[in-house]
Write the structure tokens for this entry.
Amino acid sequence: MQKRNIFKSYKLDLNNDKLMRKKWYMISGITTVLIIFFAVILGIMQRFVNLSGIQYPAVNNARSLNQAMRIMAIVYFAIFFLPYLYFIAAFFSGINQIYRSFTLHMIIWLTIFVGILLMLTTCALLIAGYSNLDSYNLIRNFQ
């Protein structure tokens, strides 16, 4: 059996229009899911951070976790835009076929990987912070 170099085959796939389009659809789909997840987390945690501790004791108990999740969402949005800013700058500076760049794709996949790690960490913090709430208290915190 021959070893298959994943990076070499990925680089070759970028030269094929059909396969390159599939790569961009995959990148777009995963990035959209991450953006929606972190936008919801950022919106909810922004509200939870500003609630009073006397009226909402469950939220007050997880205040430090709320701050951590809020910061993780902000960090994701900060690193998410970097490869796309490079992509736009390279496109307008006249670099031809930047959308086929192997380096750009690897940087985008790196940010996706970091985003997935942040998402898993955020999910663990959500479970740790709010696992003891029943549905009544959870709905009450959103009102």
